[in-house]
């Protein structure tokens, strides 16, 4: 056998080995459902104002609940997470999201103005999307985020709550059972998990996040009896702040992406970081206390300018 033939055989074996390792790294049996989480952006800003750790910005086209994440899960356990990040095959590539960038800004919003716009989406892709790829309908970065946006529209919590007589208000509060009953009806009788931000000064709990489970066909289902705590996203601050206008915001985002060097960003480096625990201000809502559902105020209103 010639040297060239030997090299071809070696290359073929290496490719087969790599494919085998890649396929073995993923196992659809490692998870059996999704947790889909939506958050109320105004409460997220209230939490930011309480902690003073970031600068909150709600784009003016954001007027509803926004996606936090779509998380593959197994039973009542957390994860799997950060799947196959060492191979770099699934590294986060901001360019792949260009076709849906405007939708992401509106429905999967990063409200932290002092962070890179893509930071939130990179976190969700690296931690959760890389594990979802065993399912054909979400087996790429673009498909994964498209599905999250589709589910936000399908399970429109603003509409579901409104149909249950619950609308955002700065004067009216609601009983926990009112929220829960309205959400259950809108989700086909399945019970969600509701998280609140607790303001210890005003003794107010603000509705912050709603989580419920779906099967792999994205139908709402009952979550396992012992469901995990909410996953907390820790944004990374950057020096560059995005402009306020929606169109300028999207244009600046693309400009920032074009300025990125090295193409796709490693998920391995992201997974190696130690994640800070969830803030004490956010936890499951107390069913004995009223819930505040604050009206969305855009940045100029919040800043008083």
Write the layout of secondary structure elements.
Elements: H1 3-25, E1 33-39, H2 41-51, E2 66-73, H3 101-107, H4 119-132, H5 141-154, H6 157-163, E3 169-174, H7 176-186, E4 193-199, E5 204-214, E6 220-221, H8 246-259, H9 267-272, E7 282-284, E8 291-293, H10 299-303
Parallel strand pairs: 5-8
Antiparallel strand pairs: 1-2, 1-5, 3-8, 4-5, 4-7, 5-6
Question: Would you give an account of this structure?
Answer:
- The chain is of the alpha+beta class and 305 residues long.
- 37% of the residues lie in helices and 15% in strands.
- The chain contains 10 helices and 8 strands.
- Strand 5 and strand 6 form a beta hairpin.
- Residues 9-26, 238-247, 274-279 and 301-305 have low confidence and may be disordered.
Helix/strand class: alpha+beta
* Morphology: globular
Summarize the amount of helix as a percent range. 25-40%
Cα-atom radius of gyration: 21 Å
Tally of individual helices: 10
Instruction: Average the pLDDT over all residues and give the rounded result.
Output: 82
Q: How much β-strand is present in the residues?
A: 15-25%
Number of strands: 8
- State the low-pLDDT regions, or none: 9-26, 238-247, 274-279, 301-305
* Main pleated sheet: 8 strands, mixed
Quaternary structure: single chain
Question: What pattern of helices and strands is seen along the backbone?
Answer: HEHEHHHHEHEEEHHEEH
Q: Please report the distance between the alpha carbons of the first and last residues.
A: 78 Å
